[in-house]
Every structure is written in structure tokens, then in C-alpha cells.
């Protein structure tokens, strides 16, 4: 991030992707996802890889199903007090695309509100993000799967300090 105003909030976009291991037997794929949780935690990691046990600087989350906002509406509703926003619905990706499972895949975009005050007194902010998804198979059977924890690093750069400007000779 270049020359940010510490009073502003920015949106960091992410994607939750689920491979469907169960082959589709109908023309209309059945979404196996019931609900989801996304947890975001910015920690004071002191120049090393962040750990969940580090002191928390900022945290936010999403709990539930897809939200009622479209992508263009997210910026207008972006406020750390409102938590993480998701796209309106999951998108099915057919099994013919690389990286999908036998039943295709499901993707959902999400946006994390990042208040720039996290850079107060630091140039680098390290965060951890993880998700859990509750699945159903069309019967009463439900189960939960957990993602790995992803490390996210954001650096605050300043033109006057980090970018050399050379004059004409």
C-alpha cells in the first residue's frame, strides 16, 4: 500500500474455493455448502511469521451464508464494524476446468475491511485468515471442513522514504 491515510479503510479481496468430490448426476448442480465462517486476525508478529498466539491488533469475521451485497456495493458498506462481506452467492465451476473435483467446484469472493490504523507505529502488518464450511449432502447428514490458515502480509510504503526520485542532470 502506498502513502495510505491511517484514517481510511481498504478492502482486501479473497476467494474461498471448495472442490466437490461427488460427481454431479444432474444438469443443475446441488450446492453442498450450508454455511461458512471466515476469521481474520492481524497480529503483532515482530518481523517473523505470524502465529495465532501473537497479540491481536485487529480482528474481524463472517458467520453465516452469503451476504446480500453485490461486488459494487461492498465499498459503500465497508466498515470494520460490519465485519467481512461476501458475494451474494457461490459460483459453480464445472468439472471440465483444471483444479476442480469430479463434481466441479464452488467459489465465493469475500472482502475484508482493513483499517489503515493497523500501520500506526509499524510498516508491515501480518494477518492470519482461515475458513470453515458446513456441508450437507441433501440428507440430514452435515459435516464441517476447515481450511489451512493463510498468512497475509501487507506493507505500508511511503514515496518520500521508499522511492528514490532522481532529478535531471
From TrEMBL:
Name this polypeptide is given: Uncharacterized protein
